[in-house]
Amino acid sequence: MIISIDGPSGSGKEKIAKYIAKKYKLYHLDSGMLYRRITFLILKNKIDINKKNHIKKFLKDLKHISAKKHKNLRTEIISKATSKIAKNKEIRNFINYQQKIIVKDMLKSYKGCVIDGRDIGSNVFKNAKIKLFITVSAKIRAKRRHKQLIEQGEKSIYSRILKGIILRDKTDKKREISPLVVPINAIYIDNSLDFKNTISQVNQVLEKKL
Ligand code: C5P
């Protein structure tokens, strides 16, 4: 059983996915983490993604990529670079394949998986039993991110965070391959209010569909 959760940057997909995974004892795969880790490795190894041969060799040597979460992959620098690198066809194919392998493997020990990203219900797991699409305005997302960075003791300028979010939305929605779209049959979850409100919407959907 697969549940897909798609939505823009900072819409709270991960928190919702974690909640569902815990409640129903499912495996949670954060596909954004795969894109973030590959971006980190590309930057570290100074791979020129405009050179097809370089990227092909890099992916061939890499073989697998871990979905393990790491807070260093959540920095603003990595976020910005990831949405650019995620436009690349070879990288998307590689990550999609990795997701299929991870899910197949996890389904041996879990009764299902919750996967969050941008193209999960529309492209990677079109067969998902339940497809959720999370909405929150860019301003609310920027306010939350700004607050989080300040609380972590990091420097943050609200207007810059908002600009970054708007730009990432645009890059994700306008890209040629697998853009961020609302999957057919997806159910909207509005995550603008508090988490309790969001969870009550999620529970309503799950109780009806599961
Ligand atoms: O979800 P998260 O913000 O961690 O994703 C980081 C970036 O990875 C996104 O801005 C997006 O460009 C890319 N991504 C993607 N497809 C996915 C998940 C993430 O293109 N399924």
> Might you state the CATH topology name?
Rossmann fold
CATH architecture: 3-Layer(aba) Sandwich
Helicity, as a percent range = 55-70%
Query: Cα distance, first to last residue?
Result: 10 Å
What structural class do the secondary elements suggest?
Answer: alpha/beta
Bound molecules: cytidine-5'-monophosphate
**Shape assignment:** globular
User: What amount of the residues lies in strands?
Assistant: 5-15%
For the sheet with most strands, the description reads: 5 strands, parallel
Total DSSP helices: 9
Sheet with the most strands: spatial strand order: 2-3-1-4-5
Overall CATH class: Alpha Beta
Please state the CA-atom Rg, rounded to the nearest Å.
Answer: 17 Å
Quick one: how many beta strands?
Answer: 5
Return residue spans where pLDDT drops below 50 for at least 5 consecutive residues: none
Q: State the order of secondary-structure elements, H for helix, E for strand.
A: EHEHHHHEHEHHEH
CATH superfamily: P-loop containing nucleotide triphosphate hydrolases
| Rounded mean pLDDT score | 96
Overall number of structural domains? 1
